[in-house]
Amino acid sequence: MTQIDDCLASPAARKLLRLHMADGVGPIRLARLLAHFGGVDDVLAASRNSLQKVEGVGPATAQAILDARTDERAERELEQAARLGIRILGLTDADYPARLASIPDPPTCLYVRGRLDPQDTAALAIVGTRRCTHYGAEQARRFAALVAGAGFTVVSGLARGIDAQAHEGAMQARGRTLAVLGNGLHEVYPPEHRSLADQIVESDAGAVLSEIPFCAAPETGNFPRRNRIVIGLSVGVLVVEAPRRSGALITAAQAVDYNREVFALPGRVDTLQAAGANQLIRDGARLVTCLEDILEELTAVERRCIPPDARSQPDDPPPAPALFDLPPDEQAVLDSLAGEERDLDSLAGVCRIPVPRLTSALMHLQLKGAVRRLPGGRFARR
């Protein structure tokens, strides 16, 4: 195999890339193969008969896996990635996004242009119609800026309409954003968003991602696959504006399947573009009118994710700050709430932390269960 820097693709990722390029080996079949053989090396070394013992692997797929051992497509893919400065992450890599890896059908390989960050674990997807109203565009940009300012990474699909507004709003707030494409990263679709993709990468505001190989032809069927990545990277999805028949509603349905929270922004009842979002609210999505509606729900979600035996019992004393491995801003906020309730202005004065950073620290402390929000915009230690 071509000499490739491990920073571009780890040895394990290069092997997974061979299977990723093999016809008929999607995420579900790969999971079955790895479970059956124990590892990617064993899959690539398996005989035809052994491969065909795996559920869903017929003669054609078995032959594709055998051919993958020497297939030059993987070589060419790595060479093009090197030319374009694109990293290829394999599913087993330590820095593959953990939340995405937890879905039933995670991408075998993830192409990354830009930089992923540990803070991207706290991410919210913002989606909606390509043909949005002025109100929808305005609210997508506004809420993206709010959640990015609160420390969330904004995830969307770089499409026209709501997606583009969400990415721009996050960058306007100097936050992070991830754009997931339904085509290979050697080109940007739609083409008029090439400069937006460049801005995300060059300003170090996030990354542009795809699972689609460079050599794959653009196909309409790629976009539903793209949407599962948008949801997989996120703790929840906010539907800003969507008609009744909309890809955004399909994305919301996938979010439910993946056990993600679904939020929706209400719209005018006489506007077609709002009909789908209003329907989601009627069907049980969390109605959103302000940032707190999102933060409160995600805080509850985070608390539900803590194992029962790790939760504090009612009579337990509040955890000491020393029990937390906290960043400096969060530790300063927690210290300032020792025995006192404070509002945002009071915290800003005591902690001497700029408000955007203070808001982010408060959000993360709420998600960790260390701080609770009280009526009247005050905060207290748990």
Describe this structure in words.
There is one protein chain. The chain is of the alpha/beta class and 382 residues long. It has 3 domains: 11-77, 5' to 3' exonuclease, C-terminal subdomain (DNA polymerase, domain 1), CATH 1.10.150; 118-299, Rossmann fold (3-Layer(aba) Sandwich); 314-381, Orthogonal Bundle (Arc Repressor Mutant, subunit A). The protein is 44% helix and 13% strand. It is built from 17 helices and 12 strands. The strands form 2 sheets. Strands 1-2-6-5-4-3-7-8-9 form a 9-stranded mixed beta sheet, sandwiched between helices. A 3-stranded antiparallel beta sheet has the order 10-12-11. Strand 4, helix 9 and strand 5 (177-180) form a beta-alpha-beta unit. The chain is globular, with a radius of gyration of 22 Å. The relative contact order is 0.09. Mean pLDDT is 86; it is low at 303-324.
Topology:
Elements: H1 11-21, H2 27-37, H3 40-45, H4 48-51, H5 59-68, H6 72-84, E1 87-90, H7 98-101, E2 109-114, E3 123-127, H8 134-149, E4 153-156, H9 162-172, E5 177-180, H10 194-202, E6 206-210, H11 222-232, E7 236-239, H12 247-257, E8 261-264, H13 275-282, E9 286-287, H14 291-304, H15 328-336, E10 342-343, H16 344-351, H17 355-367, E11 371-374, E12 378-381
Parallel strand pairs: 3-4, 3-7, 4-5, 5-6, 7-8, 8-9
Antiparallel strand pairs: 1-2, 2-6, 10-12, 11-12
Helix pairs in contact: 8-9, 11-12, 15-17
Structural class determined from secondary elements:
alpha/beta
Poorly predicted runs of 5 or more residues? 303-324
How many individual β-strands?
12
The tally of structural domains comes to 3
CATH architecture term of the largest domain: 3-Layer(aba) Sandwich
* Measured distance between first and last alpha carbons: 55 Å
Which topology of the largest domain does CATH recognise?
Rossmann fold
SSE order, as H and E? Answer: HHHHHHEHEEHEHEHEHEHEHEHHEHHEE
Q: Please, how many helices?
A: 17
Tell me, rounded to a whole number, the average pLDDT: 86
